Amino acid sequence: MMSARLQAAQKFPIVFLSSKVIPTQVGASPLQAFYSTHIVGDKPILVRDFIHSSLYHPIHGYFSSRSCSVGVLEKSIKFNQLEGRTGYMRCLDDIYKQSDISWFTPVEIFKPWYAHAIAEAIMRTANFSVPLKIYEIGGGSGTCAKGILDYIMLNAPAKVYNSMTYTSVEISPSLGEVQRETVGQVRSHISKFRVECRDAADRTGWGDVEQQPCWVIMLEVLDNLPHDLIYSENQVSSWKEVWVERHDRDTLSELYKPLKDSLITRCVGIMELDKNLSTQSSARSMVKNIWSKLYPKPRRCWLPTGCLKLFEVLHEVLPKMSLVASDFSYLPDVTIPGERAPLVSTKRDGRSTDYGNYLEAQGDADIFFPTDFWLLERIDHYCSGWLKPQGDNTSKTGKKRRSITLETSYFMEEFGLPSKTRTKDGYNPLLDDFKNTKFFLSVPTHNTK
């Protein structure tokens, strides 16, 4: 059976226009999970800290305890030899049955063509008057790095390849070793590639500010960044922070506190920016208040605070960076309540199982979120200093950025070679199946606000 990540793309044949919102039932008891955990101690922790430990704890975390969670294909799939969609699905099923891998990323399934398209996008807009510098956050198996280095070696002027550097910022030491092995298959790449095993969102690991233009790549990274959860009793009540507390050895539940955390507060301000800028009439507000009292409806909203923290760091240390990110814009079959809610999935005995409660994650489950690309653009512009929420009177002048969100099929048709992933009957899984994934490109301009 395919992994939940690949299923998320394969099960989704059409484009949805909005995120799925599943409100909690009125009067529902706090979410609980019954298991022995090392994640929550005697004091409550924010949801983002719970998720970060569940995924990245050095001993109990999903990515730490499962070094083989990200797969590497021994050889590229020959799409032109497959008999359409049925042949492609059979090929993937065989791949997963033959391995104990939790999931294969799109850059792995469609290698080398996926990485080649990203390399082409970089080459079309990069400033070659300075050495090309590329940073990849969460390099996975190293397939993207190798594909990009291969493409630039073969298609760019020799001086570009010879002077370039490619740095993978990888939090998992085991994946870092896999990346070195993958890229090292081409001897000339070794001197240009290095892995730094650290958290990219930690400012102290970056050192001095990089004043030269550079590129930052993030593929399927945003979905695994820690998120916070906020809760409101009804449509007009103020948001509250959600914390996770342990009642006894095996019982976890949610705790609601007034908004005080600065990261959560900043993220809420960015999320509600348009709402603040548009003045609501008093009559509309009155109707909303009456409606909320007659039909109270709890609200739950997941905030990409991990993304905000990462982007704040990146814009500080790489002020002239150009960014290309790819991720899921929507996840089907999510049962966990809340706007932008995650899919929590584990794989046992070759079969994927989805949890209905994020607190059930015990270091054995992947927790990944859909990316709200509308909000991502505003986070990017906010962190560059260009966009300011209401009430922000700081004198800091930010850099204006040009950004665009593209469907994966459009990105690949523009920068890639779609013929390389087409099957015998014309079916193209990269263009036809990944309708719930998008690319986000953001580049600096010379203009200031």
What does this entry show, briefly?
This protein is α+β, with helices and mostly antiparallel strands and 449 residues long.
Structural notes for this entry:
- It is found in: Mitochondrion.
- With 449 residues, this protein is of the alpha+beta class.
- Helix content is 33%, strand content 21%.
- It is built from 16 helices and 16 strands.
- The protein has helices spanning 4-10, 47-56, 62-65, 84-97, 106-109, 113-125, 143-155, 158-163, 173-183, 262-271, 273-277, 282-294, 305-317, 373-383, 408-415, 429-432, and strands spanning 33-34, 45-46, 133-137, 165-170, 193-197, 214-219, 228-232, 240-246, 251-258, 299-303, 321-328, 343-348, 351-355, 366-368, 399-407, 437-448.
- Helix 6 (113-125) crosses helix 7.
